[in-house]
């Protein structure tokens, strides 16, 4: 059985109709938490990694095309973009030319299907908050669904636990806030619990490519599919070299104890190791969250482990109501899907270009994506045309929320193809056709409207 807190949580999940596999997975992590597991990975226990580059791989075109025909696609699509002031699926956000993330993803896949004569089923892992909006937005693409497979499956949910006592939190004012997602590591549990893992294998699919819906660089490219097929690995992650904007993010390393690759997230790093986490020379690679998995290897490993992969625990402490810091402190039990790299014997990494990692987590990222740093071709794939991706830091007081952000760029994003960085303090509004060149800083003391057609040249422009 278990402690009183776990039994209360179990009963709550059963009453809510949560899948039994997800309940057992939650119970596994609850016990770890109860016994003091922190999920921390000490710097002394790991060493840096060096990895193969996709640019050096020589994959025959026929191998690449054949691998693509055996591949299914999963997009993680449970996020609401609440940090940017949204209350619907973040993937509904307009990116370019009136197209949302969902529009571009759908068109990328339809183009690849036609070009390579590949079925490429596309599945979205939605949350109960994004399910309806997503399917409504995709309804215009009549041929997107593959016969016998749904367009989406649902991410599981679990109760938030009071930090004091590890009892499921109660919040009658807004009962939805009593629940949280288990992190994107839940994709494996949800795939198995929904029956989709077996269905994909039965329909002849060998591989699955999993990525975030807010990363438009994550296209199931045949050259990567071919590399993965030739590698014979059960599991692989696309990695990129870290930049200053990645200093606070996770990184790959090798565990000294057994030589396994690991993914260490910030939440798994002790305070005394944060400097090492931020050392871009020591830990050079971060995850794109673009994963390639052998479906049969995943099924066999889940079978061996009774449905629980045993990913490293991530203990996330927050306020019960994220918008009200006076509400009780709660713990959210989470896992990261990339952490499964340490579960599979023979798992590997491949270094890819930054064009395959274009995440939009903030309006800083959104401004770059809407600018001319990238073009979108007939295949709807992003093409980096600037020499490099500029660093953007917008004043959160005026630009953090999408609604406020849009008011300050009413006629579109400025040209940033020649920009190194853009830092804005204060309240600036941009006219049509503004161009940013070099390293530009706009300060609060002179906040104003930038006239249409203005060229702002910075220190290195």
TrEMBL record:
One matching Pfam family: UDPGP
Key words, A-Z: Nucleotidyltransferase, Transferase
GO molecular function ontology, one term from the record: nucleotidyltransferase activity
UniProt keyword Nucleotidyltransferase, yes or no: yes
InterPro entries in the record: Nucleotide-diphossugar_trans, UDPGP_fam, UDPGP_trans
Similarity-based family: Belongs to the UDPGP type 1 family.
Protein name: UTP--glucose-1-phosphate uridylyltransferase
Protein species of origin: Nocardioides bizhenqiangii
Higher taxonomy: Bacteria, Bacillati, Actinomycetota, Actinomycetes, Propionibacteriales
């Amino acid at each position: 059985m278990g402690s009183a807190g776990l039994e209360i949580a179990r009963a709550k999940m059963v009453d809510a109709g949560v899948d039994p596999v997800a309940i057992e997975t939650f119970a596994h992590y609850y016990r770890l938490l109860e016994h003091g597991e922190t999920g921390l990975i000490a710097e002394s226990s790991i060493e840096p990694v060096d990895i193969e580059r996709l640019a050096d791989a020589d994959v025959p075109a026929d191998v690449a095309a054949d691998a693509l025909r055996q591949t299914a696609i999963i997009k993680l699509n449970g996020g609401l973009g609440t940090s940017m002031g949204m209350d619907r699926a973040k993937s509904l956000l307009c990116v370019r030319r009136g197209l949302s993330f969902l529009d571009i993803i759908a068109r990328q896949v339809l183009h690849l299907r036609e070009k390579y004569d590949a079925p490429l089923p596309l599945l979205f892992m939605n949350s109960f908050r994004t399910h309806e909006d997503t399917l409504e937005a995709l309804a215009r693409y009549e041929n997107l669904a593959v016969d016998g497979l749904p367009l989406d499956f649902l991410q599981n949910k679990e109760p938030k636990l009071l930090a004091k006592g590890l009892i499921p939190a109660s919040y009658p004012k807004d009962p939805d806030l009593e629940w949280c997602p288990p992190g994107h590591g839940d994709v494996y549990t949800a795939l198995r619990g929904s029956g989709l893992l077996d269905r994909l294998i039965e329909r002849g699919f060998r591989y699955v490519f999993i990525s975030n819906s807010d990363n438009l660089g994550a296209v199931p490219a045949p050259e990567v599919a071919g590399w993965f097929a030739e590698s014979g690995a059960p599991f692989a992650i696309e990695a990129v070299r870290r930049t200053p904007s990645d200093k606070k993010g996770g990184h790959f390393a090798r565990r000294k104890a057994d030589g396994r690759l690991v993914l260490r997230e910030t939440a798994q790093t002790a305070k005394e190791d944060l400097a090492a986490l931020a050392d871009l020379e020591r830990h050079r690679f971060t995850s794109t969250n673009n994963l390639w998995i052998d479906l049969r290897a995943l099924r066999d490993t889940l079978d061996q482990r009774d449905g629980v992969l045993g990913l490293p625990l991530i203990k996330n402490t927050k306020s019960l109501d994220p918008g009200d810091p006076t509400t009780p402190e709660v713990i959210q039990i989470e896992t990261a899907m990339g952490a499964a790299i340490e579960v599979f014997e023979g798992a590997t990494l491949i270094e890819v270009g930054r064009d395959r990692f274009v995440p939009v987590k903030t309006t800083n990222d959104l401004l770059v994506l809407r600018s001319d740093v990238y073009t979108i071709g007939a295949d709807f794939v992003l093409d980096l045309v600037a020499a490099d991706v500029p660093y953007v830091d917008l004043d959160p007081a005026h630009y953090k929320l999408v609604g406020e952000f849009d008011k300050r760029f009413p006629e579109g994003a400025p040209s940033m193809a020649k920009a190194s960085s853009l830092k804005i303090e204060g309240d600036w509004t941009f006219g049509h056709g503004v161009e940013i060149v070099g390293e530009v800083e706009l300060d609060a003391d002179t906040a104003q409207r930038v006239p249409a057609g203005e060229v702002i040249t910075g220190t290195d422009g």
